[in-house]
Design brief:
The protein has 114 residues and is mainly α. The chain is built from five helices and no strands. 56% of the residues lie in helices and 0% in strands. It is elongated.
Length: 114
């Protein structure tokens, strides 16, 4: 049984490719093998290879763990700024309704119930 093929928009694939390239550059700058980065991130060497080549199958958590282990900044290089963004996001999310209902369709057949 093979892995499910994930369909990506071109922009999403480009983003994965760029992040993978940044991770590979950071790994090479640190003179780490794929195995060493994998051990530091707590993932397999195959996962690092998939991430570095822009693969869509690794989980977002694994991608972020590998990026952080390699020293690639996510959203902001400043940890305090990232914490502030997370708090602000949580506060904004708390203001959103718990669900969004679809607008009701106008009854096109009048008051007739058949």
């Amino acid at each position: 049984m093979g892995r499910q093929r994930i369909s990506l928009t071109p922009a999403a694939q480009d983003a994965l490719t760029v992040l993978g390239q940044q991770i590979r550059f950071a790994r090479h700058d640190r003179v780490w093998s794929m195995a060493e980065l994998a051990a530091r991130a707590g993932v397999s060497e195959n996962t690092v290879r998939a991430i570095e080549t822009g693969g869509a199958n690794p989980s977002i958590g694994n991608v972020f763990n590998v990026a952080v282990a390699a020293g690639v900044p996510l959203f902001s290089a400043d940890r305090d700024e990232l914490d502030r963004l997370a708090r602000d996001g949580a506060a904004r999310l708390a203001l959103l309704p718990t669900r969004v209902d679809e607008p009701r369709r106008k009854d096109v057949d009048g008051d007739f119930d058949f």
